[in-house]
């Protein structure tokens, strides 16, 4: 596809997207995001991820949440935000929409909707995973939230092969905060583990700790922050944390995406 038609397809695709991610209890408008990767003023909140979108997540100040290995006996997934209970500003909505559009256009321009092309470009399946394919060069570069250098591509299995469904971005370490360029819309998340996982530079998972040591990397009880950008109309929004899509829903969303692209070409 030429860049002009790619841009049109991305625009139609974006128009169809529901790029809304609910806060804890939206009541007011958020302040504009700080420039660059600087964190906006104010505290951070963590919210226990709830896969049921009908539920309001439990959120608290991050400083009040203890996330050490003794807390729970299973993995914990925490969404993080500096914008609890607020509505996005027009500038934040535009920034979120621009990110979606740029990711879609990048996937088209690089040919990453083709699984073979994505793997040829260095995306390899993450350890102990079925959907996330990381690019080590992009993981360890200095870029953050760059649609031309996404740390992960997300592919789902379908009867006709691997289908690209989105990007996943991570910062440069497991202590760096992901920039919320879309305010409350662009909520990041991270995992804590009751048993440590081996990570290289705090971001690349190389497997579990064995006998207290890692062959590669260092033990860590928490992952880096991460954020999905979905390249289909995820029912929970364009930055949804949840990964589960039933085969029937996935098939419908992929067909809708192809129909949108067909209309753009026409």
Structural account:
This protein has 266 residues and is α+β, with helices and mostly antiparallel strands. It has one domain (3-265). 24% of the residues lie in helices and 25% in strands. It contains five helices and 13 strands. The chain has helices at residues 3-16, 90-110, 115-120, 136-139, 247-265, and strands at 28-29, 45-48, 59-61, 76-81, 86-87, 123-125, 132-135, 152-158, 161-169, 188-200, 204-208, 218-222, 227-230. Strands 2, 3, 4, 10, 11 and 12 form a six-stranded antiparallel sheet that branches. A five-stranded antiparallel sheet has the order 6-7-8-9-13. The chain has a two-stranded parallel sheet with strand order 1-5. The radius of gyration is 18 Å and the shape is globular.
Q: How many domains in all?
A: 1
Amount of helix: 10-25%
Global outline = globular
Proportion of β residues? 25-35%
Distance between the termini: 12 Å
Number of DSSP E strands: 13
What class do helices, strands and sheet pairing give? alpha+beta
* Radius of gyration (Å): 18 Å
H-E string: HEEEEEHHEEHEEEEEEH
Largest sheet: 6 strands, antiparallel
**Mean pLDDT over the residues:** 84
Low-confidence stretches: 1-9, 18-38
Count of DSSP H/I helices: 5
